[in-house]
């Protein structure tokens, strides 16, 4: 008796390759659900933080930095001069971005746009920060903040494009740039800095989290960890401006070191882009 031959074929067994294909499809769906859950969780956490945080207003103390020395007739000399390494680190990367993806290891169109905005933000920050520190006040503050916010938001979006999905990363880039403009409007019109604070805080959490949660598409991913370490160090030095200044016996302030660390981040990422290659082939 050949009972097995009389049984109808199972619907889940479409052929010898159907099992692995179905498994891969299920894993892909699970991964997509995880990505959406992480994205929704991040958005929800940011919204809750915005609501729970008390209103931040402009105060004159905002423009009082630890090191306000006037050397060689230049007000706030070191805070002005340490902004220009951002120019030295940003211009080569910006030129190479303009030359095309052949100069850098960039395989996706919107990823190239993200890197262009990152380097353009650094170049603009060199001039904007120097302009602000020559005479710190509310009117000049936007020229210091806006370029660096564009740069950090572009960096976060680049990671999303590279490690999650190109379309999601592009949506992230557009959303963050829109929120940056909205935060500037809230700051100027409503005298409310909450959104600006959150937009500066989110990359400090999201970038390290993505480095650990999602696999890299390219080689030399260790440069991401090195650059992220200096990025977080820069943020810490900016917050601990006076403390850092007193610890090193009033040689250089935390804010000036913040400028130098941001320039180092740009240099490290430029080196990474110059040497990396595609590690994981992925359709986008």
Automatic annotation (TrEMBL):
Keyword terms, alphabetized: Membrane, Transmembrane, Transmembrane helix
Transmembrane segments: 37-56, 83-106, 113-134, 146-161, 168-190, 196-214, 223-240, 252-275
Protein name from the UniProt record: Alkaline phytoceramidase
């Amino acid at each position: 008796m050949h009972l097995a031959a009389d049984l109808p074929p199972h619907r889940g067994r479409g052929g010898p390759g159907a099992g692995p294909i179905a498994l891969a499809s299920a894993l892909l769906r699970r991964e997509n659900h995880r990505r959406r859950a992480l994205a929704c969780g991040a958005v929800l956490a940011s919204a809750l933080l915005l609501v729970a945080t008390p209103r931040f207003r402009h105060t004159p103390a905002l423009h009082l930095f630890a090191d306000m020395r006037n050397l060689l007739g230049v007000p706030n000399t070191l805070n002005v001069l340490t902004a220009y390494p951002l120019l030295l680190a940003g211009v080569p990367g910006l030129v190479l971005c303009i030359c095309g993806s052949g100069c850098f290891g960039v395989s996706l169109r919107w990823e190239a746009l993200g890197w262009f905005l990152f380097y353009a933000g650094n170049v603009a920050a060199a001039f904007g920060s120097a302009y602000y520190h020559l005479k710190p006040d509310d009117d000049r503050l936007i020229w210091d903040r806006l370029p660096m916010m564009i740069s950090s938001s572009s960096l976060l979006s680049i990671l999303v494009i590279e490690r999650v999905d190109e379309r999601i990363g592009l949506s992230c880039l557009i959303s963050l740039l829109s929120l940056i403009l909205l935060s500037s409007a809230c700051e100027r019109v409503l005298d409310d800095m909450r959104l600006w604070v959150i937009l500066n805080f989110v990359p400090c959490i999201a970038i390290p989290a993505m480095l650990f949660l999602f696999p890299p598409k390219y080689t030399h991913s260790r440069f991401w960890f090195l650059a992220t370490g200096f990025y977080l160090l820069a943020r810490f030095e900016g917050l601990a401006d006076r403390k850092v200044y007193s610890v090193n016996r009033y040689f250089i302030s935390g804010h000036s070191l913040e400028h130098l660390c941001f320039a180092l981040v740009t240099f490290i990422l430029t080196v990474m882009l110059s040497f990396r290659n595609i590690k994981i082939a992925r359709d986008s």
